[in-house]
Amino acid sequence: xxxxxxxxxxxxxxxxxxxxxxxxxxxxxxxxxxxxxxxxxxxxxxxxxxxxxxxxxxxxxxxxxxxxxxxxxxxxxxxxxxxxxxxxxxxxxxxxxxxxxxxxxxxxxxxxxxxxxxxxxxxxxxxxxxxxxxxxxxxxxxxxxxxxxxxxxxxxxxxxxxxxxxxxxxxxxxxxxxxxxxxxxxxxxxxxxxxxxxxxxxxxxxxxxxxxxxxxxxxxxxxxxxxxxxxxxxxxxxxxxxxxxxxxxxxxxxxxxxxxxxxxxxxxxxxxxxxxxxxxxxxxxxxxxxxxxxxxxxxxxxxxxxxxxxxxxxxx
Length: 316
What we know:
The chain is mostly helical. The protein has helices at about 5-20, 30-40, 45-60, 60-70, 75-90, 100-120, 125, 130-135, 135-145, 170-190, 200-210, 215-240, 245-275, 280-315, and strands spanning about 150, 155, 165, 165-170. The protein is elongated, with a radius of gyration of 31 Å.
């Protein structure tokens, strides 16, 4: 085996094998779903950091817009000013793709694992750890590779493609579509919000008239385009690969969406708690003193009013 197989493919293969062996009757699809949830859970710290970066990027959008306007004729100064803003808010723009870079080899490894189960079942023992080979269900599967259940809940064969020479698999086609739609929703959830709805055509027309392009506007346009294009690419890729990969992507995207929603909600609660803790005792005492003074002033005003009424009655 090469280094990639030893470092990435073999651990994933054995984890999937262990999950498969734990499921009564065996179900490759359920194994992939459980495996994906485990991977998302392990990525939780990185995802949380990624979301912090995304939220910080949203927060500084107005500040970046001001810099673009201020240094619209000086790209070098604008870039330096932006770097200062990133440093001030502890933002690392490239860190947002870290989770994607980690998931890429996992996706490739799952494809390789599917190939092993489909095309190289005689080599199951080669990729199985020695300690795993002693486990009854795993030992039975290695001895009888044709007993491997490659279906998902008995509904679809995950080793087949949605579109193949044997025909169209409606179930796998729907699975690929679900993965693509969830990818769009996930991208929308993570992208910075912007009120600027300019199109690339508008920016190019302005550039033709001699106006310098606003980099923030260009980035926003590219992001919106990628949000629409990437799901289409994903759909086209998923229908041409084994269904296990579409199931992995669909499960990963829905788990990521829920994970992001939980983290964003937790962050909101934490920010409210921090805001409450930042109220110093000194400011609290000042507020109490101010309230006392206001109450005393109201009492004095009421007393003066009563005295004035009494004097008026006395004159009568």
